[in-house]
Input
Amino acid sequence: MKKSIIISFAFLLAGCSNQVDTKLDVSLKDAYSDSFMIGAAFSTYNFSDRNKETRDLILKHFNAISPDNELKPESIHPSPDVWNFQPADAFCQFGKDNGMWILGHTLCWHNQTPAFLWTKPDGQTMSKEEIFESIRSYIETVCTHFLGKVDAWDVINEIVSEDGGYRDLGWVHALGADPAVVDEFVKHVFRCAEKYAPNTELYYNEFNCWRPSKLTGIVRLVKMLQAEGIRIDGVGIQAHWGLGYPKNEYIVDAINQLAALGVKVNISELDVDVLPISKDAQVIGRSLQDPQYQLEEFEAFLDPYKDGLPENVENQLAARYEELFKIFYEHRNQIARVTFWGVHDGTSWKNDSPISHRTNYPLLFKRDFTPHKAYYSVINVPSGK
Ligand code: GLA
Output
C-alpha cells in the first residue's frame, strides 16, 4: 500500500518534470556547457532573413555548426573548371560572426562527389597514381582555401562497409577495391589533410558505427593510421537512429571502443526517425525507393503522421531522446560534441529518406519552431530532473 503511494507520487513528480514550459530560456548549449558542444547541420538559406525563426533557433541553441551541403565536393567543385567557394565562405562567415565552432564536411566521400575526380575526359578510369594525385590536389585546394575558417574536417566519410571491409563505391571502386590499395589510399588522404590543414582537427565520420562488425573495421582504420604516425583526432558517430534501434548497449560499446583509441568521439549527425520502415531501410534504405512503396496502400502505412504526431509517439520520442542523452552525458568525458542533422523537423533529410515526401519528426524542434517534449527531456538530463 505504502509502496503504491510512493510510486504514484513518483509518477506525479515525473509528470511534472515533463510539463512544458519549464525553461524555454535554457538553451541546449547552456544545458551542456560543462559536457560537450551542441551542434546543428544546416544550409546558408537557413539563416537568411526569410528564415528568421530558424536562424533564431540556431543562434540560441547551438555552438558548433556543420554545413549541410556547401562543403561537399559536388558543391565546391561541380565541374572540372569550376570552383564554387562562395556559399561555404558565407556559411563560415556566419559561424565566425557568431563565435561558433565550424566543421568542414567532407573532403573524401563516394557520394555527392563528381566522378571526374577519378575519371579521365575520355571516360576511362584514372590510374592509381592519377587518383592519388587527384585527391591530393583537391585536398590542397580546398584545405588551403578554408585554412583558419574551419576548426575540423571530416576527412573521409563512410568508406567502411557493414562487414568491416571497404565499400566498393566512388574512389574505392575506381581504385579496384583491393583492400591493400584502399588502405594505402586512406593513409594518403589523411596525410594530405595533415599537410594542407595544419591546426585543424581531422576526423573519420561514419554511420552505423554501433554495428559490431562495422565498428571492428573503423577501429582497424584508426589503428592503421596511428601505427604509421598519421594524425587522426576524432571519429564521428553519425547517429541516424530510430525509436527502437540501435540497442543502447551497442551505442555505449562504440563510444567506449573509439574513446579507448585516444581520439575524440563526436556524435556527428543525430536524428531519431519516428516513421515505420522495413528492416533493410535501417541501412540507408535504397530499396524503399522502389516504385511499389509509392503506391497508395503503402503510403498510408509508411506516412501515418501527416497531420501531426500523436501524443503516444511524442512521448516515445521524448523517452528515446532522454535515454540517448543520458548515455551521452554519462560519457561526457569521452564525447566532444553532439550535433543534430538539421535544426527543426521541417529541415530534416528524414522527410525524404529512405522514402521521399513523408512527414517525419526526428529533431527537438517542430516545424512551427516550438520545442517537442523531447527538448525538455534533453534539457533536464544534466540536472537529473
Ligand atoms: C550522411 C552524410 C551527410 C548527409 C546525411 C543525410 O550521413 O554524411 O552529409 O548527407 O547523410 O542528409
